[in-house]
Amino acid sequence: MQLRHGAAALALAAGCIAGNALAQSIKIAYIDPLSGAFANVGEAGASQFQMVIEDINAKGGVLGGRKLELVKFDNKTSPQESLIQFKAVTDQGIRYITQGNGSSVAGVLIDAVNKWNERNPDKTVLFLNYAAVDPDFTNDKCSFWHFRFDANSDMKMQALTSFIAKRPAIKKVYLFNQDYQFGKQVSRAANEMLGKKRPDIKIVGDEFIGLGKVKDFAPYVAKIKATGADTVITGNWGNDLTLFVKAAREAGLKSDFYTYYGGGLGTPAALGASAEGKVKQITEWHINIPNTPILPFAQEFKKRTKIDLYYGRVNVQMRMFAAALNSAGSDDPAKVATALEGMFLSTEIGDVEMRKDDHQLLQNLYISTFTKVDGKNPKYDLEGTGFAPHRHVELPHRLRCRPPAR
Fold it and tell me: Structural domains in the chain?
């Protein structure tokens, strides 16, 4: 009789252990700025990740009912602080990280993940990059443990310079970027690609500013104005873009702006009416694309957070991550990485492909121009300005992606 009770107790304990394992959430560490100059960018990203995770969980989660869970870590946009936070992540046994702002952080995290996984093959970590676009990360520094869900800066510059090349009125271009890997790559690519596509264009300035260091952009705007530049190309983001375009508006700078992040937090409000017809952005999505399936999500996100949805790719990343977990039938990062390689998926912003060779996502890109909203086309404004991206040019991903340089 005692043996039967003992066996029953063991069976019950085993059932509880199995149940706990099934119920245990799969944690994703979000390592991005939650304080400092770029806190607004980091908080907006965290809010979107949280909402899409809630949506996935509400639809049954992954692996037969397990939930995803976002755990936030503030890196203050500092590579050094990011390494401290990465140690906290591994100390907590979290096996997945995501980060996007910016490439200076992503570079050290890729290296840290590679070294950690080499030392700890039974506790590997997978890095899902949603916004750090230095092309080296999927070229010379390509890692099995890193996947990028944003088009890299060279892909975006190919699109922008092809667009510029067809506009003969553009004669003088000023390059204005942040002084770190990404900004340097934007400058390099612009010089190389414009030189080939429009050698008649004169680069009248090629300037760099410290990341998050400048508070008064008036002197820089005055310098740009003095060159007679008709066009500015900038990869600036966050306050480095918002404050710059605000100073440009106040100074009456007439140049057109070709931006990577012109539709990002605070920039539309800073530009206001001065953006009309003058500010271009390149994105994987924007709210005035006709019949876009992500629209209900974007509207609910704005209702909840009072923030306009910007990162279409965040939804893509988390949908692909969930699909890879289910395809792998496991939460083992190595198996999930293998499932992600070469994955095709129909998403809320269109069909996408994770290129197997270098872990670079292929997705359509759109060049759009800020236009006054008329309630029909374009219908939805940004940040209550009455203006929004519109008159877009779609660039299908298979036409604008070059093979990786290995």
Answer: 25-151+295-362 (3.40.50.2300), 154-283+364-400 (3.40.50.2300)
Give 3-state DSSP helix, strand, coil % of the chain, rounded to 5: 45, 20, 35
pLDDT in tens, 313-349: 999 999 999 999 999 999 999 999 999 999 999 999 9
Strand order in the sheet with 126-129: 68-74, 26-32, 96-99, 126-129, 146-148
Nearby residues of 291 by Cβ (< 8 Å), 6 or more positions away: none
Neighbour-count burial of 336, counting CB atoms closer than 10 A to its CB (0-12 exposed, 13-18 middle, 19+ buried): buried
Give the span between the Cα atoms of 319 and 317, in whole angstroms: 6
Q: And the tokens for 2?
A: 């005692």
CA distance 24 to 286: 36
Give the CA-trace dihedral at 229, 230, 233, 239, to 10 degrees: 80
Answer whether 366's CB lies under 8 Å from 284's CB.
yes
The mean pLDDT value of the chain amounts to 90
- Measured CA to CA, the distance from residue 151 to residue 147 in angstroms comes to 11
Lateral strand order in the sheet of 361-362: 344-347, 350-354, 361-362
Euclidean distance between CA atoms 277 and 258, whole angstroms: 11
181 CB-near residues (< 8 Å, 6+ apart): 103, 104, 107, 134, 136
Q: Helix count (H) and strand count (E) of the chain?
A: 13, 15
Question: Which two structure tokens, joined as six digits, stand for 261?
Answer: 């992040």
Beta strands of 3-145 (E only): which ranges? 26-32, 68-74, 96-99, 126-129
Backbone angles phi, psi at 182, to 5 degrees: -60, -50
pTM of the model: 0.87
Which tokens in the block code for residue 203? 């680069």
CA atoms within 13 A on the CB side of 247: 18
Give the amino acid at 231: T
- What's the rounded Cα separation, in Å, for the pair 191 and 157? 10
